[in-house]
Amino acid sequence: MDTPLLRPTDQRTGGWQTFPFIIGAIMGVSMVTYGVSSNLEVYLINAFNIGRFDAAQIYGIASGCISLAPIVGGIVADSMLGCSTVLGGATAACFVGLSPVEHHEIHYA
Questions:
Q1: What is the separation, in whole angstroms, between the first and last Cα of the chain?
Q2: Spatial separation of the C-alpha atoms in residues 71 and 50, rounded to whole Å
Q3: Transmembrane ranges (predicted)?
Q4: Is there a contact between 72 and 81 (Cβ–Cβ < 8 Å)?
Q5: Residue 108 in this model has a pLDDT that exceeds 60
Q6: What is the distance between the alpha carbons of residues 6 and 13, in angstroms, rounded to a whole number?
């Protein structure tokens, strides 16, 4: 019982070595979220002829959902499905969500 369960390694992992990658990923996601969110209100007003007040309410709801999605996804990944399943599902959902955007032209009146 004196032998350790895990062998010590000389390789350093995690900690400050991964910090630049985490910050870079968060910055990228923040820029994309800000760009999409700010264009959402303009798109709702111009393309769907929604009033400014209603468009602002929809923007607030969408912004709240975007902010809560990582928390919900983390809980689901950790407690129910596992990291690989959630990553595959999220990748598929992003692909399906972007498919109509790539093949659709927007014509403003």
A1: 77
A2: 30
A3: 20-37, 58-77
A4: no
A5: no
A6: 15
For residue range 8-29, list pLDDT tens digits in order.
666 665 567 777 887 888 888 8
How far is the C-alpha of 37 from the C-alpha of 41, rounded, in Å? 7
**This prediction's pTM:** 0.52
- Rounded to 10°, the helix 52-76/19-47 angle is 150
**Tokens 């209603």 found at:** 54
> How many residues are given for the chain?
109
pLDDT for 102 beyond 90: no
Q: What is the mean pLDDT of the chain?
A: 77
Distance from C-alpha of 82 to C-alpha of 97, rounded to nearest angstrom: 22
Instruction: Tell me 80's DSSP state.
Output: I
Q: Do residues 34 and 27 lie in contact, with contact meaning Cβ atoms separated by under 8 Å?
A: no
In contact, 77 and 83? CB cutoff 8 Å: yes
Tell me the residue type at 69: A
